[in-house]
Amino acid sequence: MEEGLQSFKADFFKALAHPLRIRILELLVDGEKSVNEIQNCLEIEGSAVSQQLSVLRAKNIVYGTKDGKRVYYSLRDPMIIELLDVAKRIFNNHLINTISILEEMTISEREDEM
Q: What is the distance, to the nearest Å, from the Cα of residue 22 to the centroid of all Cα atoms in its chain?
């Protein structure tokens, strides 16, 4: 059972492991969007957007709803919003830690020069 969950997590994070996919998900936080809307917001060609949406769809992270000739994409699970927020907070923590280390190094170098 635990192994299946770990495999799911690994596959899930692999699906997120591309900056363009993350950017798409961040756009979808605000609600459903068509491929053209996503393409225009990101200023990226449609084939690249479609390719990344295909990966996200295959891993059940997003889903598409057809409306005529257009397909509108949405987040399958609203918890993705929380996950993206947690990732941002982790990034900020790393950034704060790095800044603190640099400040400590600068202070230490100044003390050594005196």
A: 3
For the stretch 60-64, contacts whose Cβ atoms lie closer than 8 Å and that sit 24 or more positions apart, written own/partner, are: 61/12, 61/15, 61/16, 61/25, 62/24, 62/25, 62/28
The string over 78-107, giving b where at least 16 C-beta atoms fall within 10 Å of a residue's C-beta and e elsewhere, is: eebeeebeeeeeeeeeeeeeeeeeeeeeee
Domain ranges of the chain: 1-76, 78-114
Which pTM was predicted?
0.79
Q: Please give the CATH number for the structural domain made up of 1-76.
A: 1.10.10.10
Provide the pLDDT for residue 106: 81
For residue 63, give the 3-state DSSP assignment: strand
